[in-house]
């Protein structure tokens, strides 16, 4: 009888934790996009398993900066943006200014990639499909609001994780005729600095995503109670999921594409075709739709969460900067403007997917240094109660992360000027 009570109590606790999840899962959905589908897969395709440790290291070193969103809001019930404002209006202005640029570039990048995946199943141009992706994403967000986004993302993340694990299992069972690891080209060459920086820029995501997590947590708390412990569990669940799936996508690239002799095309439609065709050639034609579903779910969920996340932070940032205390939300107009500007950027690049994504990822890496510093400063600030500030381990990890980010940023600048 006692065992039954203990089991029931344990199940109730698990159920309560799962109901409280949402912001962390949304963060994972935003993260598992171009960084995983393109950068991780490309890393595995071109260099085998050599960059697996770097991907894990990047996730570890960025952890304190991402965790700031959930931890600060769980402790204060304020958003990160309000925290920046308390440190000084200039910090919030810096964050918001950089966020405008990142919002337009990131929306364009993920939307074009989603459209590129759709070209394999819908016979329309990538520009038309990009418009369709934007309109469907906006419809979901405007009419469904946060509750629909929360529920939809949980389903998508479950389906994405399941289908990706099936895909990599099939890949392990079909690895024949692949180049041995000893024959792999080394990624530690001067020519590949740009690729390494681009890969790390969105691995697992741009650090400003921490502010989205903060705002999503506030929105979640409007409909139900979420304790600090639950909020941190939710964040950790989402973050660990992104790290694991980053390695899974690298495994797909290493097992399926590595040694094939194929080079990725800059064209979005051709890139999508190469990605899906190379998988299906090795794993069987019957898996073509499986790979297509994995790719589309991966990047569509990213597109929806990216539009919502950037729009929320810009809406909140502008309201705080203008001292606007009105409860009226300008979220929908902000979404429409960001989407329209993103579409203009897509038209400018004319379907050249990889150059656009590389531009967005490098931009993310260069601004990451500033966002990381802002979050570290906030989590060690005297404005935060002592018990909620980062302890010695997180402080040391943060400093190591900052040194790594600054060092690679300087290396990239030198590489770009001398290449």
TrEMBL record:
It is a multi-pass membrane protein. Its main location: membrane. It comes from the Bacteria. The keyword Transport applies. Keywords: Membrane, Symport, Transmembrane, Transmembrane helix, Transport. The chain crosses the membrane at residues 20-39, 51-70, 91-118, 124-143, 155-172, 192-216, 237-258, 289-310, 330-349, 356-376, 396-417. It is found in: Membrane. PANTHER family: NATURAL RESISTANCE-ASSOCIATED MACROPHAGE PROTEIN 2 (PTHR11706:SF33), SOLUTE CARRIER PROTEIN FAMILY 11 MEMBER (PTHR11706). This is Membrane protein. It comes from Shewanella ulleungensis. The lineage of its organism: Bacteria, Pseudomonadati, Pseudomonadota, Gammaproteobacteria, Alteromonadales.
């Amino acid at each position: 009888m006692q065992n039954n009570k203990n089991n029931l109590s344990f199940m109730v606790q698990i159920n309560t934790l799962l109901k409280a999840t949402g912001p962390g899962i949304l963060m994972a959905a935003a993260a598992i996009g171009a960084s995983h589908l393109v950068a991780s897969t490309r890393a595995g395709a071109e260099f085998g398993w050599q960059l697996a440790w770097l991907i894990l290291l990047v996730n570890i070193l960025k952890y304190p900066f991402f965790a700031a969103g959930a931890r600060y809001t769980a402790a204060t019930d304020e958003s990160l943006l309000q925290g920046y404002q308390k440190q000084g209006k200039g910090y919030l202005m810096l964050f918001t200014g950089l966020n405008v640029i990142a919002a337009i570039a990131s929306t364009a990048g993920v939307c074009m990639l989603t459209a590129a995946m759709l070209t394999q199943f819908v016979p329309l141009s990538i520009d038309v499909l990009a418009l369709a992706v934007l309109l469907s994403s906006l419809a979901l967000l405007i009419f469904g609001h946060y509750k629909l986004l929360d529920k939809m993302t949980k389903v998508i993340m479950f389906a994405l994780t399941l289908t990706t694990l099936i895909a990599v299992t099939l890949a392990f069972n079909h690895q024949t005729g692949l180049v041995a690891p000893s024959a792999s080209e080394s990624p530690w060459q001067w020519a590949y600095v740009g690729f390494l920086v681009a890969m790390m820029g969105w691995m697992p995501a741009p650090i400003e995503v921490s502010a989205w997590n903060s705002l999503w947590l506030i929105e979640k708390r409007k409909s139900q109670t979420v304790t600090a412990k639950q909020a941190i569990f939710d964040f950790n669940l989402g973050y660990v999921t992104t790290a694991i799936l980053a390695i899974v996508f690298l495994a797909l690239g290493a097992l399926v594409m590595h040694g094939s002799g194929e080079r990725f095309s800059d064209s979005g439609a051709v890139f999508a075709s190469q990605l899906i065709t190379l998988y299906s050639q090795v794993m069987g034609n019957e898996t073509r739709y499986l790979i297509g579903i994995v790719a589309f779910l991966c990047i569509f969920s990213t597109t929806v969460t990216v539009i919502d996340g950037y729009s929320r932070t810009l809406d909140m940032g502008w309201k705080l900067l203008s001292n606007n205390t009105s409860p009226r939300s300008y979220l929908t107009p902000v979404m429409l403007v960001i989407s329209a500007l993103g579409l203009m950027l897509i038209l400018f690049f004319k379907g050249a997917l990889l150059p656009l994504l590389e531009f967005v990822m490098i931009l993310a890496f260069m601004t990451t240094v500033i966002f990381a510093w802002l979050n570290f400063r906030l989590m060690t600030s005297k404005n935060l109660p002592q018990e909620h500030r980062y302890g010695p381990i997180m402080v040391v990890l943060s400093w190591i992360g900052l040194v790594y980010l600054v060092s690679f940023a300087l290396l990239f600048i030198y590489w770009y000027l001398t290449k």
